[in-house]
Amino acid sequence: MSLIDRVRTSLPSSLAPSDGPRDWRQLSIAAGYGAVGAVTLGLLLIAPVMVAWAADPQSTTSWTDALSFSGDGWALAHRGHVSVAVGAAHSVTFAPLVLTALAVVFARMAAKAMLTHLSDRSGAWWEGPASYIVGYVVAGLLITGFSITGPAHPNLLTVFPGALVVGFAGCLWALLRSDEPVAAHAKAFVDQRISLSTRRALRPATEGVLGYLGVGLVLVLLLLVTHASQIGDLNGQLRPGLLGGLVLWAGQLAALPNLLVWSAGWTTGASMHIGAVSVGSTSVHGGLLPMIPVLGAVPEAGALPAGTSLAPLVPVLLGAFVGYRSLGKLTTYASLKTKAITAAQAAGMTAAIVLLLSWLSTAGVSGGSLDYIGPSLLIVPLVVVELLLGALLATLFLHWKRALRH
User: Are 382 and 269 a contacting pair, CB within 8 Å?
Assistant: First the structure.
């Protein structure tokens, strides 16, 4: 038996899984914390919805119908589909990632409280977190189910995947940042089953995702600055008024992370689709767009400036950065195989998170001019290949450079 095996099989009793009987009362309370995490976002959405309803003197909507819009917002934040009427051909899919991020934060806060409550419970460590996620998903489906009586009608089946992802992400975040016994059991369980190279790849992967969003931010700011006059003209033609203008710009700001993900996705070489408009690496194919001010930043139809065809080098360079960061904790004498595996895992994790964000960010209105907004499916192979290529090239270069020194 190796030293590592002896360490893994001699965990302190405080970290060993408990074989005590399952406490259904505490598991029910854990599910209740999950419900609280889901309801918190719904309560946050009620305030602006009711304020907008009360401030509109021409509104013919009842207060109960207006209240149902908060459930529609909850469904959209979790990437659910919302139909505008029973049997209508138009279905809206649009998850403003600011709201989705808030949902994850609220889920994490509730999960943290849940872990504190379960500090002295018996049974397997995963039962409490699993009950929490079930409570979150069930409460979310109930919230969206109540809004079915209103003017819009969420599709519960499409809400389920997003609710599961958000509940899991919030619970995972709480487990990673907690020192409670349940979290310690979870970390020990993971440490026994995930290789050291995988754990080393987590931080570089996170930095890679932040770098990816940073690339998108630079592109969005560049487009906003160079198309400021077009955006202003569209806003002037709409004349939304004070309250309408606040709602319009709040919605566009909530979608800012979506714009970052879409812009960064364009650098991979995958076309960016905005309904009938397609923005490729070298040209833009035009089409009709609705009068939303921020869409004035979309480049005009025709050829793009020279040099945009080199955009796919950006994710390759980002992959090289991820590879460089992943080798930071390895010794100089680590084998090339170990370095390549660590770098590839970091790049793979980065690609997985990027693709998850790309899926969450996609939007559309079925049967309309904006039937799909987001990157083409080519982003899946392109982002994986480009990040892995950059990471492995950086690994080979750094290994060769260090070999020359020694």
Answer: yes
